[in-house]
Design brief:
By secondary structure, this protein is an alpha/beta fold. It is 32% helix and 18% strand. The structure holds 2-phosphoglycolic acid. The site of 2-phosphoglycolic acid (PGA) has 7 residues, from loops.
Amino acid sequence: MRIEIAADATTLAKRAASAICDVARAGAHPSIGLPTGDTPISTYEEIARRVEAGGCDLSRVTAWAVDEFAGVPRGTPGTNDAFFLRHLAFPLGALHLPDAGAANAARDIAAFASRLRDAGGIDLCVLGIGTNGHIAFNEPGSAADSPARVVDLATESRNAHAAAFGSLDAVPTRGMTLGVADILASRAILVLASGAAKADIVRRAIEEPPSAAVPASWLQRHAGVTWLLDAAAASRLRAR
Ligand code: PGA
């Protein structure tokens, strides 16, 4: 595991953009997993600036959303579909998402994960971490070998999305997620965390023995994980 500490959120976004642009340059068919959330927005903005300036090209990249809400029409404001439409302001080779409006969400997310495996998996899976330790929608209780599946969303996760959906009641109670197993099958993983509110869960994920109580702690089992933190998110880590 590598831990990189950026002085602030702007520097974090620049480093994350560099990592993503580097993967886009490598290999014949680069593939990345992409998260939603407040943290990656400035990274996506930085990538858009670099693409505009000619310093980055994601037009050959196949991107895979790591999760999506379930039970609302595709594109509903607040869904990850709507998020990516708004925040990925640069050409991408392809963007695959589970279908929030699928009549059978369990079948849809299983088919999504199977398409991902058939396409050769993920070169770099970019993740955020929830204050409850989730990665993608793998909420506390998720096992290391959990597959792609439909999940009940934690109250904490639904609260975090209330504004985007307009109210807490409008936030779906279920989501579709790549499993911890799918994430660990990625060739490299980059976790982004910014701000003091993440400091305690980042410490637990990195320093406590891996357990389902903090799904992000399963990332300790992958040799190619980089934690990219700003100083506030890193502030509770023991000196190393
Ligand atoms: P955030 O979300 O970037 O909005 O804090 C992270 C997450 O829940 O994965």
